[in-house]
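re: ur question from yesterday

yeah so i grabbed the chain u mentioned. its 339 aa long if i counted rite. heres the sequnce exactly as i have it in my notes:
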Amino acid sequence: MSGWYAGWTQFLLCGLAIMVAGTQLSRYGDILAVKTGMGRTWMGLVIIAAATSLPELATGASSILWVQAPDITVGDLLGSCVFNLLILALVDLLYPRGPALTAADRGHLVAAGFGVVMLGVAVMGVMAHSPIASLTFLHVGLSSLVLVICYLVAMRAVFRYQRRELAAYQKEREEEPAYEDVTLNRALLLFGVNALVVLAAGVWLARTAAHLAELAGWHMSLMGTLFVAASTSLPELVVTLGALRLGAIDLAVGNLFGSNLINLAMLGVMDILYVKGPLLGLAASVHAVTGLMAILMTGIASLELAYRPQKKALRWMSTGAFLLVFIYAAHIFVQALAR
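ran it thru and got these structure tokens back, copy pasting raw so excuse formatting
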């Protein structure tokens, strides 16, 4: 029992560190978005998403290099995608002016569309059988290479979209706070320091979560998909809520969609590190269900971004947010039933 209590103590301390550093990361990310002129959508989608996804990278690498548990890696990365989309529902619940995605920039549809494509590629990689599964470059599966290429194309497409919408972003910057009390160099320094804190605490949090799940006797794929995925997504949760508190809705939404794109690209990177064979092909087939759930949830979020309802149909949350919660609950049920 002492190991159980020690594990939970470490888990809570890491969570507290992420809450403090993640809140500051949101603030200085918003300052950088204003002072550099990159815009909140781009800052959330690329820079902050990369910083909050570092725990998934470290956890995935350690799972396949030292623990030799590919199911934890695949479950963590795909499960984090589902959990990040659940956070969108929480954002909607806490956004008082109406449906949160209605207030967000339509440019997020580009990232969401690429997310659906990459999730489809990942699902096919998990479900592929011979002869498709034998299509590899050295030990790396074809689907993993496609995921990395798709991420690079997605970043280029989003950048080009942002450049076309420069006039709109210029108007947005005129309405943003100037942050005259903080210099650009100070913002860069404090952003980097808080990102390192989030990384260190997130990595330790994920390891502690895996240890607690082992003590509870959970299966490897269930452990990665639910418990470890939720733990490594805590930075995204804290940073997103911090951005929402600042009124930076595009920073919050961009962070979540961007984190999903990076998580899917990481599947390709992890496959390169895993030399025993195609990572997705060797993972349990139940991970395909997680990927399909993420596709459904991304599609729902995309519809709400495009349709832009003006009122929350369910008083406290929009119809899309309610469906995101419902599908996540169904995802937990299916994962537990599959054991």
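noticed a couple things. Residues 271 and 279 are 5 Å apart (CA to CA). also The first helix runs from residue 2 to 36.
anyway ttyl
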